[in-house]
Amino acid sequence: MPNPVRLDDQPNRIHYWLMGSYIFRRILMVIPVLIVVSFVSFGFIRLIKGDPVQIMLGERAPAEEVEKFKQQMGLNDPMPIQYLRYMQQLLQGNMGKSLITRVPVTTELAYRLPATIEAIFFALLIGVTVGVSMGVLAAIKRNTAIDLIANMVALLGVAMPVFWLALVMIYLFGVFLKILPPGARIDANIVIPPITGFYLIDSLLHGRTDWFVDALKHMVMPSLVLSTTVMPSIMRLTRASMLEVLRADYIRTARAKGLKMGSVILRHALRNALLPVITTIGLQIGGLLGGAILTENAFSWTGMGQWFFGAISRRDYPVLQAAILLNATIFVIMTMLVDISYALIDPRIRYK
Amino acid sequence: MNGLEKHLSRRQLLRLLGIGSTGAVLAACGASQTASPTQAPAAKATDAPAAPAATEVPKPTDAPAPTEASKAAAQTLIIGRGGDSVALDPAVVTDGESARVCTAVYDTLTIIEGTSTKVVPWLAESWDTKDSKVWTFKLRSGVKFHDGTECNADAVKFNFDRWMDPKNPYRYADQKYEYWDTEMSSVVDKVDVVDPSTIKISLKDPSSLLLVKLTLFNFAIASPTAIKEQKEKYATQTGKPVGTGRFKFDSWVPNDKITVVRNDDWWGNTANLAYTQKPLLEKIIWRSIPDNSTRFAEYQAGTLDMADLAQTDALTLKGNPEYTETTSPSLAVGYIAFNQAVKPFDKVEVRKAWAHAVNWDAIITTFYGEYAKRATCFQPPAILGHNPEIKAYEYSPEKAKELLKAAGLENGFETDFWYIPVVRGYFPDSKALAEAMAADLAKVGIKLNLKTEDWGAYLKDRKDGKFASWALGWGSDNGDPDNFIGYHFIWSDPTKPNIEDSYNNPKLQELLQKGRTEPDAANREKLYKQAEQIVHDDVPRIPVAWPEGVSFTKKYIKGDKPLVFRDKYELFSVEK
User: Fold this and answer.
1) Burial of residue A94 (number of CB atoms within 10 Å: 0-12, 13-18, 19+)
2) Do B161 and B168 meet the contact criterion of CB atoms below 8 Å apart?
3) B469 forms bridges with which residues in the sheet?
4) CA-CA-CA-CA dihedral for B287, B288, B294, B299, to nearest 10
5) Count of Cβ atoms closer than 10 Å to residue A146 Cβ
């Protein structure tokens, strides 16, 4: 039974001190984890069979050429040396260059990241809005048809692979109904001079609402598909948490005071029920990054997911390393933020 | 396609399925037309279809809504392809996706006529040589780069200097001048400016291949001013390519699209050349769509006017009234190869027995349908030196058994056979084909252990001689036999056979080497026909199929003609 948060709880000095030290300790713990991650990302890829140089230079490349190139790229050096060189560069903010395009990883990251953030933002927005509303509805109308339907939708969301759902939607809305563009971030005829890299923001900065509307249209299907990776768990968590809260004494009290049901649910129940939901959203972002790989590929979305997808088949080591490292880092940081947010929300955590 | 193929292959690999299409890939990998001696690839252009999305530049729109867009908007061609260009500096790129854009933006000194593989004047108006060693080229006058500077003899020499000299100040780290190094560095000795419109190219040895090599997109002439100004950024994602071509570079959104617009000041508009015309398209957009299914969906949705499609996807459009189906003659071969250093493949009887033991015709019908012909000799008919007198090895298990007996192997033998792990036009379903072949071979006592591995490893191990027998194929880069039969059988080290097959026939070496210098086309043809016969008799490879290109073009794309080994964007128009 969760304790309701007392909003009038005034923390004293000792509270601040304890919390600061907790957060500090928690951040320190991230460092060894990241080192292990870098090690794993470096080593793991090299275990996969397949020679990136041969793939890159093609089937007609003479052996000497391949050898020369490997020498140049340092791919013949002992693994520990390669690793140390990799770490040294990484700490200088240099993630290497793509073996295929020779474009620095950081350069490409700079314009791919906004695309992914845009998609993830809308996916989260949809996932949370729909997930929470369905969860609340299902909890209130427990054991009714609405509850059943909400649960089924959630189940479907979990069960459907995103690349399949993406293709179904592309054919339905893009090819047959022709009401939504089947792919890309914007119409082929529009080129938005980059300012921030976020198309929705840049189009407005350029004062072009027509561009904005077009970018928004292109956003619909990818973000919908991506949202299915988070929506089911949010819905089910909301429902479970809501059911518990609705049984709590303070809800009964509120009702006894004569408050309207709607106001009780919104102001008293939902507020408390959402706490566990909010903290898990942080963790969901990790799942979204995974979902983005397939979703972006299906919608020719020039984000990080598409980039990593391509890098896998090309054995593009520097890009893959960056991919694994970035995803793991984001995940580790999100977990850390969630832990810290627990501490902020629930004072009991800090003392442990 | 030397370099080109490299690229194609990478791209195809990426796509996992990689072949073919509505436009291009298939074609690229091997389809084209009858030819004569010659070559140059230049980007094999996609035949691409053109476009629906009526819209103009900055105007959002859903795909197929025809707006009352201006005519200009209507003459926009949107092409879907599997990957982005690497860079648009032709000297340093080798990939097909870069080539496609480069050929629209740049011009070369010579060009392939198109309906034939004859070399015709382009930036060079005429040429002359007395001994095939010193060539004098007269340049077209009044040609301007897109930046307004003049394309004269100095500009051409600037380009040659950059290609030729590893210490040239306009070459940068990471840049590899691969085409020059492989095709030209052993050929060209020096380049001199004679007067502002004349250059002289002196060769190390007489060669008749110079003209055709100059048609390669890699030897297109770029603006010296632009190269000097942009330095290492020249024509990269953050730079801007400047040539003299039909289309001017407009914009590049990395991994998304590259846009070029028509160059209304193009010199060709007034040159009155029979083999070209003023371009009708006003704008071309190449969109990168790595996923095959998505690209196909966009093509159907109408957001693409042309697209490179996987063959399996493209074939589903068969019979659809919105599309025109065209097939183009084969320029490729899929073959079975043997390593003669591995017993019992050192015996010609064994290799021949294999050839006779398999019902190849049935295999072609099953695995290629109507999109390939049974290969009767190594080179398809479009390649110079194809020998029509050679008859394919007939299907005869009895004969195969006799041959095995003659080789002292009446009880048969067991060997490893490697099939390719990827989809290619020349082997669309390599594994199933290998199984069918193994079943036939088992009947004469040859037992195959089928194997494969990662594509990169496969290519390398094959080259290192680790395979006993394997499947592979080839698509012509330029229509020239030196790039086809020559490529496969000339020893890379002149003193000993190639490790991959240990095939040792000095007579064949002699013929193929002669083919490289013989200036007369008719004589060359004779040399290569003889070479074909030797290859047929020695069976170092069993040619299996000559795959054809098939494409499905939207009906509203007009003007297509079956040109080979060059782009043809000037022909297309959009008429909806």
Assistant:
1) middle
2) yes
3) B338, B417
4) 30
5) 14
What does the radius of gyration of chain B's CA atoms come to, in whole angstroms?
A: 24
* Mean pLDDT, range A288-308, rounded to an integer: 89
> Whose CA is closest to B162, among B218, B209, B98, B215?
B218
Widest CA span in chain B: 78
B424 shares contact with chain A (CB less than 8 Å): no
Kindly list the residues from chain B whose CB atom is less than 8 angstroms away from the CB atom of residue A213: 60
Decide: B380 and B331 in contact? Cβ < 8 Å: yes
> In three state form, how does the secondary structure of B139-152 look?
ECCCCECCCCCECC
- B290–A56 C-beta distance less than 8 A: no
Residue A67 CA, distance from chain mean position? 39
Instruction: Give percent above pLDDT 90 in chain B.
Output: 57
**Which of A49, A182, A298 lies closest to B301 in CB terms?**
A182
CA distance B276 to B47: 16
Contact A313 B16 (CB under 8 A): yes
Contacts of A311 (CB under 8 A, 6+ apart): A98, A319, A320, A323
Check CB contact under 8 Å for B60 and A190.
yes
Whether residue B344 is preceded by a cis peptide bond, meaning omega within 30 degrees of 0, is: yes
Reported ipTM = 0.82
Q: How far apart are CA B347 and CA A30, in angstroms?
A: 65
Closest CA of chain A from B79, distance in Å:
10
- List the one residue out of A343, A348, A351 whose CA is nearest residue A27: A343
- B488-504: per-residue pLDDT in tens? 999 988 889 999 999 99
B18/B93: higher pLDDT = B93
CB B65 within 8 A of CB B145: no
Share of chain A above pLDDT 90, in %: 32
A69 pLDDT band, cuts 50/70/90, is: confident
How many CB atoms are closer than 10 A to CB A193?
Answer: 9
DSSP letters, B47-75, are ----------TT----TT------HHHHT
> What is the model's pLDDT at position A262?
82
pLDDT, residue A8, reads: 47
pLDDT digits 0-9 by tens, B343-376: 899 999 999 999 999 999 999 999 988 889 999 9
B332 class by beta-carbon count within 10 Å (0-12 exposed, 13-18 middle, 19+ buried): buried
At residue B324, what are phi and psi to the nearest 5 degrees? Answer: -105, 130
